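Q: Hi! First time doing this. I have a protein sequence and I read that you can turn it into a structure. Is that right? Here it is:
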Amino acid sequence: MLKFLSYISKNLILAIPVVMLGGFLFGLALPSVWLKSLIVPLTFVMVYPMMVTLKLSKVLEGGDGKAQLLAQLINFGIIPFVAFGLGQWFFPAQPYYAMGLLLAALLPTSGMTISWTGFAGGNLGAAVKMTVLGLIIGSLATPFYVQWLMGAIVPVDMWAVFSQIVFIVFLPMIAGHFTQSNLLKKYGQKAFQSEWAPRFPPFSTLGVLGIVFVAMALKAQQLVDRPGELVNLALPLLALYGLNYLLSTLVAKIFLKRGDAIALVYGTVMRNLSIALALAMNAFGSAASDAALVITLAYIIQVQSAAWYIKLTDRLFGKKAA
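A: Yes, that's right. Below is the predicted 3D structure, encoded as structure tokens:
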């Protein structure tokens, strides 16, 4: 089972479109409203495993302050407003699509930030710190950004959003931290890193795919009625990721050395779509599937673009010193 899940985790480029198609066909063939009851358990399966391997202590380490500051300025001072503007431009009459675009932009960094930084030969320590800081700041800031930017357009229950953030992020973070501490105490750092830590992320992938399946099944009939919908949703997402890559690459080239530069790009372009998806499905009632569909499509663009960007890193930032 674990080997199969690990294989899927490494092949999200194929797995997510396949699951999307499966959810779409299921939604057309069978009643799908009952699938909403799976959202809460799938959310836990998705978020808790990634928290077990999160190194909260990395936040206190120094040495890459400029990269961290630039990353958070891009993540919270620029990209949310770009996403909001694109949402208003592309979806003036479909506010929950705009909400999905905003949520995708408000929760930066994920395990993918660390993985892709490592694949590209970047500064892994900086990437880990960006992941932890981005998760904490994004989780605290999201309810306020949503209320500020979207509150006049859609009904936003601040308490509902904040309570979902607590349930989706901070409770699993606390549970994950205790799990990590107990495993470290019992087996030691070396055994934890080599034997235990790799076992958790594949289960997170199972939760992601489950939520993607549910989101597609709930939207299946609407997509049949409006066959051009996916193309209309893809355009603002392509614009968001394109602008994000362009901005982050320029800032990284101007201000940072190679290792920190690569970490900055992946620490600002990779979004925590798992948490964004869980928040969309849990906090916005009957219209949640609209926001969730936008975030689901973002998975495809994010994974594909990250893989292609690796091919450009040596050309953009120079080759890694031997």
